Amino acid sequence: MTWNVLEVGCDESGSDGENLTGGNTDVFAHASVRLPVDSAAGYVQEVRDRIRSPASEYKANHLLREKHRAVLEWLLAPEGPIHGAAHVHLTEKAFFVVDRATDLLLGESAAALVLFREGRRVFGDEQWQEFLEAANQLLRVRNDGEPSQPADVFFRTVDDLRRAHSGTEVAPVLERLAATRSRADSYRAAIVAGPTLVPVLNPLLPAIVKTAAYWSAGGRPVHLVHDRQNMLTPERIAWIEETARLAGIGLDGMRLVQARLDPRVQLADFLAGIARKLASDELNRRADPALTALLRPYVDTASVWGDEASWAMLGGENRSENTRSAPSADINSAV
Fold first, then answer.
1. Roughly how many angstroms between the first and final C-alpha of the chain, as a whole number?
2. pLDDT of residue 246
């Protein structure tokens, strides 16, 4: 059977580059919308007509204002304009850091859930934040200090935690991490040696691969129409396409547009910002249950999420475990 290519508009919210533990947001969201252009344009206009703001460009914040709650509920509702035609991939940033660190250093991510779910309880908030920041600095491409500084700080932090928390649930993971200095040094040396095509800590590229996987799962090839941004260089788009091909994902290509010129991308922009805010509220135990319930049908089961309680609400009780954001070998080999 020959399939027509499906076009999907995409945008993101919550990008802080590689600063995942000290940025402005704790959740990254990548949203996608599959609608005819004319239909999407009509829905964007209806949002404008309902909100009646003089702003030249509408963003998710317009819909998230309490006075416009009815518009937000209309947009997300089962009988609303994007239900069944939109999708959002979520990344819990702190867990993404732990997941990437254990994958890089241990060659697997099973330890990430143990370390993430027990670490804060065992270490306490202050030591847990120190560990996250040290792991973030180890993995990020940019380094303003000595070349060995990120690894020095990370392994000193791990050693301190090993001594302070021996015999706990996380002690075996800490012991294994402490023995991986050579892997960390090789990783940092590769960064110093040349430009990094795919930063390990940037969640956008693997999220795009997962988006393509979702929409092409039925066998129909998908073409992604994505909001322009500096991260999506021709070389990185080529990486996305090759990664998808190797994974058997039917990605037919990508093209970049200005969000205001494609109403599908504008709707994806709305959904990404809404999802990021509602997911963050759920993560921080300040959620509105009614809004979380409206968001749940849109959430990707392959989202990268470590917190059990919030995921039970965002992803459903039958989806309590995260799945990988992208093939780890492909990401690491691109560094």
1. 38
2. 97
Tens-place pLDDT, residues 103-149 = 999 998 889 999 999 999 999 999 999 999 999 999 999 887 788 89
Q: Return phi, psi of residue 5, to 5°.
A: -75, 135
Residue whose structure tokens are 């250093």 = 105
CA 58 from centre of chain: 23
Residue 316: per-residue pLDDT: 64
pLDDT at 3: 66
Tokens 């992803």, residue? 315
Tokens of 128: 């847990």
Burial of 2 (0-12, 13-18, 19+ CB in 10 A): exposed
pLDDT given for residue 109 in this prediction: 81
Main-chain dihedrals φ then ψ at residue 91, nearest 5 degrees: -130, 120
- From residue 326, alpha-carbon distances to 164, 178, 256, 323 in Å are 34, 26, 21, 9
DSSP assignments along 44-86, one per residue = HHHHHHHH----SS--HHHHHSGGGHHHHHHHHSTTSSSTTSE
Give burial (CB, 10 Å; 0-12/13-18/19+) of 143: middle
Residues in the chain predicted with pLDDT less than 50, given as ranges, are 1-2, 318-335
Residue 18's φ and ψ, nearest 5 degrees, are -95, 5
Residue count of the chain, please give it. Answer: 335
Residue 26 contacts residue 136 (beta carbons within 8 Å): no
> C-alpha angle 64/68/69, rounded to 5°?
70
CA 300 vs CA 29, 87, 187, 265, 275: distances in Å: 10, 7, 31, 18, 11
CA nearest to 251, candidates 240, 265, 262, 264: 240
Confidence (pLDDT) at 195: 85
